[in-house]
């Protein structure tokens, strides 16, 4: 699928699922509390589909898919039939109103736990934290060598690349030195410090990660699979051959192999390939050919595939998966609040905020990586929605909860004038936040580094 169309499609899937679940939380609890629901809408604006349910609620899908709402019977919005007064929202006890408002974010958290639980049940595919460092990067300066396996990051044991990356990303926000322990390809353990304090201020995590230069180690230059009928096989190469050089130029890893084949074949497709086979050196005359791989532009190939990177699949039974899901939900929650706190204090740049465009791009990428990654993505976005909605900003759920807290303390509802003023403030804050997120998304596209 075209990347643009794929991003749009998976964005709609993401928003459709998460908004529906969020609004269903408000709807379900409101009904349980005896409040009459007039409309359940996914999206804003003009309805493109709607029907009236047996309960009298109007269910609709609207044209603008960036949210949704549940409209309840509310005396603040017009006269209420005395017969229906007991089903009106403001007539309910304060605890019922709190439950109804909190249910949306609450259901998002439930969705997050369920998504992570299913992900761990299916098996979360990850890579072992075997890394390398780009030349002249901070990681290289710290002493990271090709093939190093991360053992601890910030004093905490790590077993996967994702686990390592999450810890490193949080440290990047504060730009403070980060201690790591690695085991080299020679089996020797070393203690290193990543000098994150050398990073410039005011950049996002992606830019910091580029400057750090810590990456998964590429596969070794081993022809794990030699495609029958392709140039390498026709020349006599076999699966398991370790490729040493192309036209006399040494090859370090499989990524470099591809680059050297393209560079050499663009001058002449006739290549001299030196390999190591069970300790014996052999040389083959391989004639490369142009081929389109995975609908990409045609390029020079010889028909060999790399060994699979070392996988670390996290798959558990139902009980263990639930424990891991709860732990992951808690960790992501604390990470999010840490990041928000650092942005508020100025330690982290607001460039880390992403909007709809950024979410669409990540949604498409996650969907291409498999169901486990897409479930993880859905869980993370759902958790973010819950946290954002709980912020004490008027017009958000957290703002309403703040009003109810004030009502509990002072013994009477917040005045209508205060609520109207709060709405204006809340709308201004949200517009500012959305504008900043949109600016960041466009900035990343136009100036990616």
Word description of this protein:
The chain contains 12 helices and 17 strands. Helix content is 47%, strand content 21%. With 449 residues, the chain is α+β, with helices and mostly antiparallel strands. The two termini are 26 Å apart. It folds into 3 domains: 3-33 and 92-123 and 374-446, no CATH class; 126-218 and 308-312, Pdz3 Domain, CATH 2.30.42.10; 222-305, Roll (Pdz3 Domain), CATH 2.30.42.10. Strands 3, 4, 5, 6, 7 and 8 form a 6-stranded antiparallel beta sheet that branches. Strands 9, 11, 12, 13 and 14 form a 5-stranded antiparallel beta sheet that branches. β11 and β12 (249-250) form a beta hairpin. α1 (3-32) packs across α2, α2 runs antiparallel to α11 (397-410) and α9 (356-369) packs antiparallel against α10. 31% of the residues are buried. It is elongated and about 95 Å long. The model has no long low-confidence stretch (mean pLDDT 87).
Structural class: alpha+beta
What general form does the structure show? Answer: elongated
Please give the alpha-carbon distance between the first and last residues. 26 Å
Quaternary status: single chain
Number of strands: 17
Order of helices and strands: HEEHEHEEHEEHEEEHEEHEEEEEHHHHH
Q: What does the average pLDDT come to?
A: 87
């Amino acid at each position: 699928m075209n990347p643009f169309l794929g991003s749009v499609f998976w964005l709609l899937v993401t928003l459709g699922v998460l908004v529906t679940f969020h609004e269903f939380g408000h709807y379900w609890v409101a009904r349980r509390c005896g409040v009459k629901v007039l409309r359940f809408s996914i999206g804003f604006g003009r309805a493109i589909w709607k029907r009236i349910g047996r309960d009298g609620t109007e269910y609709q899908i609207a044209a603008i898919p960036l949210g949704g709402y549940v409209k309840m019977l509310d005396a603040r919005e017009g006269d209420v039939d005395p017969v229906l007064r007991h089903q009106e929202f403001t007539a309910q006890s304060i605890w019922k109103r709190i439950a109804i408002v909190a249910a949306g974010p609450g259901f998002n958290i439930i969705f997050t736990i369920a998504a992570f639980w299913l992900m761990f049940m299916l098996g979360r595919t990850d890579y072992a934290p075997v890394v390398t460092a780009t030349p002249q990067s901070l990681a290289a300066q710290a002493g990271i060598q090709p093939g190093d396996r991360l053992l601890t990051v910030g004093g905490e044991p790590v077993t996967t690349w994702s686990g390592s990356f999450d810890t490193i990303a949080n440290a990047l926000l504060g730009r403070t030195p980060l201690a790591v322990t690695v085991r080299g390809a020679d089996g020797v353990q070393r203690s290193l410090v990543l000098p994150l304090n050398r990073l410039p201020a005011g950049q996002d995590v992606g830019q910091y990660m580029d400057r750090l230069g810590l990456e998964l180690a590429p596969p070794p230059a081993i022809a794990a699979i030699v495609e029958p009928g392709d140039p390498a096989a026709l020349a006599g190469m076999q699966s398991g051959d370790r490729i040493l050089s192309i036209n006399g130029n040494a090859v370090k890893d499989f990524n470099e192999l591809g680059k050297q084949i393209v560079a050499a074949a663009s001058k002449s497709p006739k290549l001299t390939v030196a390999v190591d086979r069970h300790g014996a050196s052999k040389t083959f005359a391989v004639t490369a050919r142009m081929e389109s791989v995975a609908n990409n532009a045609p390029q020079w190939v010889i028909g060999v595939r790399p060994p699979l990177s070392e996988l670390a699949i996290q798959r558990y039974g139902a009980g263990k998966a639930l424990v891991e899901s709860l732990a992951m939900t808690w960790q992501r929650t604390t990470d999010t609040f840490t990041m928000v706190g650092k942005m508020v204090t100025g330690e982290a740049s607001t460039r880390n905020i992403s909007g709809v465009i950024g979410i669409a791009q990540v949604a498409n990428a996650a969907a291409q990586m498999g169901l486990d990654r897409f479930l993880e993505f859905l869980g993370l976005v759902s958790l973010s929605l819950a946290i954002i909605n709980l912020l004490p900003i008027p017009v958000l759920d957290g703002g309403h909860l703040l009003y109810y807290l004030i009502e509990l303390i002072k013994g009477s509802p917040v005045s209508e004038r205060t609520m109207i003023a709060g709405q204006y403030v809340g709308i201004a804050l949200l517009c500012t936040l959305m504008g900043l997120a949109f600016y960041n998304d466009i900035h990343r596209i136009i100036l990616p580094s």
